[in-house]
C-alpha cells in the first residue's frame, strides 16, 4: 500500500498537482485528517510494509449521512480527486463517494486476491512469499521429527492464498472454503505417505475451510498413536513485512494509472491488472462481486499435492 501511495503522489507531482494524504482511511476522511505531502516525505515508503497512513474502521462512514459528510470534508479541504487503495469494502466506499460527486479512482489491495476485475491485488504476492517461507521452514521441522504439520493461512472465503502457497511450497494437501474435504481422507493420505517412506506431511488450510485447521489437527492426533500433528497459524505475519519486487512494481503501475484516469476525467474506475495490461474497470461492476478461485489451480494443486477425491 505504501508503494501505491508513493506512486500516486509521484505521478500527481508530475502533473503539477498538490497532494494530500488521508490518515486512518475513511475515519480520517470524515474527520478531515489530511496530511500535505511532498516528494521528500515519501522517502523510503516503497520498501515499507503495512500502511504508513494507518487504517481505521468507521461506523459513521457506513451510513449514507456519513458518506455525504465525507464528501463535504474533502471539498472543504480543496480535494478535487481521491485515490482509494483497499479491498472490497474500501472500493465500495469509493463507489459511494464517486456517486456523490467526488471523483474517485480505486486500486485493489488485499492479500486474499478476491477483488473482482483484476488478476492480482497489491499485497497478494508478498503474502504468498511469506506463506511459502513458513511452509519451507515447517517442512524442515516435520522431516526432522517425523510429524504432520497443519499450516493455517488467511482466506476466510477464498482459498487462493492456500492453493498457491501449497503449490509453491510443495504441500501434501490443501483445504479451502470452496471445496470440502473429509478429515479421514487426509489421515488416509498421511498413512500412505508414511508407508511410502516420506519423512514429512504438510497440509495447508485456509482459515475458512471445512474442516478447520484446528479440527483437522485434532482428527489426525486422534487417529492413532502412530500419528501426531502440530498446528501453525501464519496469522498476521502474512500481512506484514517489506513488499516483494512484484508488488512494488504492480503498485507503481496501478498508482500511475489511477492518476491518469483522474486526469482524463475518467473517475469511478478501479485500476485492474488483466493479463499484463492495466485496465479501467467501472467500480459498479466489481463492488459486491468476488473474484472466484480458479478451479484449474485447485485441480493442479490436487494433481501435484494428491488432494483426496
In short:
The protein contains eleven helices and ten strands. It has 309 residues and is α/β, with parallel strands linked by helices. It catalyses: beta-D-fructose 6-phosphate + ATP = beta-D-fructose 1,6-bisphosphate + ADP + H(+).
3D structure, described in words:
The protein has 309 residues and is an alpha/beta fold. It has two domains: 2-123 and 243-286, Rossmann fold (3-Layer(aba) Sandwich); 127-240, Phosphofructokinase domain (Rossmann fold, 3-Layer(aba) Sandwich), CATH 3.40.50.460. It is 43% helix and 16% strand. The chain is built from eleven helices and ten strands. It has helices at 2-14, 25-30, 64-76, 88-99, 124-145, 160-169, 183-195, 213-221, 245-263, 283-286, 295-305; strands spanning 19-22, 34-37, 82-86, 104-108, 148-153, 173-175, 201-206, 229-233, 269-274, 277-282. It has a four-stranded mixed β-sheet, sandwiched between helices. A four-stranded parallel β-sheet has the order 6-7-5-8, sandwiched between helices. α7 crosses α8 (213-221). The longest helix has 22 residues, at 124-145. It is elongated, with a radius of gyration of 22 Å.
